[in-house]
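Reading is simple: the token line describes the chain's fold. The lines below illustrate.

. . .
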Amino acid sequence: QVQLVESGGGLVQPGGSLKLSCAATGTSFSFHAAVWYRQAPGKQREWVATITPSGGTNYADSVKGRFTISRDNAKNTVYLQMNSLKPEDTAVYYCKTSLGPARDIWGQGTQVTVSS
């Protein structure tokens, strides 16, 4: 029914930029908050950023000032613009939406590697 598909990851040098996309089918991001998480090997999954249906945003301290979350409701897509990337940003990035209690939907993830 509802699916989220992340894309845009890849290999980038420190200080570089990437823009991740999360495209939804079966639901509309105009009605639901969207959240980006990331997980590095051997590490716990951590929250990165959130955008509300009204467009409000919140960021983890580790990415504040470098990352920007946005949405294009006409395309049913949420984005994560990542600037000034650091090696510690290396992780698989996942997007998530919550349709209601016990109704979280996760994407498959996209790999971001920051290395020289």
